[in-house]
Amino acid sequence: MDQIQLQKLDTTVLKWLDQVHHLVEQCVQQRMQVDTKSSHRDLVTNVDREVEQYYVQHIRNFDPEAKILGEEGFGDAVKSMKGRIWFVDPIDGTMNFVKQQAEFATMVAVYEDGEPVMAWIMDVQQHDIIHGGPEYGVFHNGEKLELSVDIGLDEGLVILSGARLLYEEPGFPQLAKAAIGYRVYGSAGISYLHVLTGKAVAYLSRMRPWDFAAGVTLAKSLGLRVGTIDEQPMNMLVSGSVLVATDKAYADIMALLQKKS
Ligand code: 2AM
Ligand code: CA
Ligand code: CA
Ligand code: CA
User: Fold this and answer.
1) Does an H or E element contain 215, and which?
2) pTM (2 decimals)?
3) How many helices (H) and strands (E) does the chain have?
4) Which residue has the CA at smallest separation from atom 18 of ligand 1?
5) Whose CA is nearest to atom 11 of ligand 1?
6) What residue's CA is closest to ligand 1, atom 23?
7) Residue 258: pLDDT band by 50, 70, 90 thresholds?
8) Which ligand has its closest atom nearest to the C-alpha of 93?
9) Could you report the per-residue pLDDT of 26-56, keeping only the tens digit for each?
């Protein structure tokens, strides 16, 4: 895509994000319907569904040829990365959304033939947006974002998935101890915002494609290191243990987990 097409794409999705912000604010003021999915800790609300439907409708109008991979299933059954694919996580951090009405995100990413094109992450309650792509640059609320100083675990915060820490997955408690501090946010999108803005040096979690597509796109575009700790290359269509970090923190974590970096 050329710069004009990227600009149009960005302007369009930024408008949708504004609408999603309003939609979520309205929904919060009404009674929310909360259901469970795989377990009592895995929640979904009418807002997750309504926001995904909003995106799907608008993407279909704007980019009718594309396929959509969304968490709540209103998109398509995507089997290959050929062509244009939109990844949509309507509400990321649904537990935070239900319990705190804060610390949740909405995420969209566009890939073309397996390559990242553009992505958007919004902290919905704060209306804080990071957006951009490899050929476009990365912007924080419209201002160019620069890569922060490269610091390692001894000086930086690491963000981890709570479940992996709690169940003491090999290497994870050691990782939390090696860093200057560790944080658990309950939202992949919010975690990525912290790494992208230099407030943390790494985020590592096992996630599904709509959880990591936007974060990985923005991290790569900014010059952060991105990889998996699965001994597998990153596959945009399946779950994976995805690591986003500064160069130094990436090397520290791979050494600590005794993985090849
Ligand atoms: P979600 O809120 O969009 O489901 C912490 O729960 C983070 O892990 C969130 O970003 C959440 O995304 C994601 N996650 C992935 N799979 C999950 C699951 N089965 N249950 C709860 N959260 C999950
Ligand atoms: Ca969910
Ligand atoms: Ca998610
Ligand atoms: Ca979600």
Assistant:
1) helix 209-222
2) 0.97
3) 8, 14
4) 42
5) 93
6) 42
7) confident
8) 1
9) 999 998 999 999 999 999 999 999 999 999 9
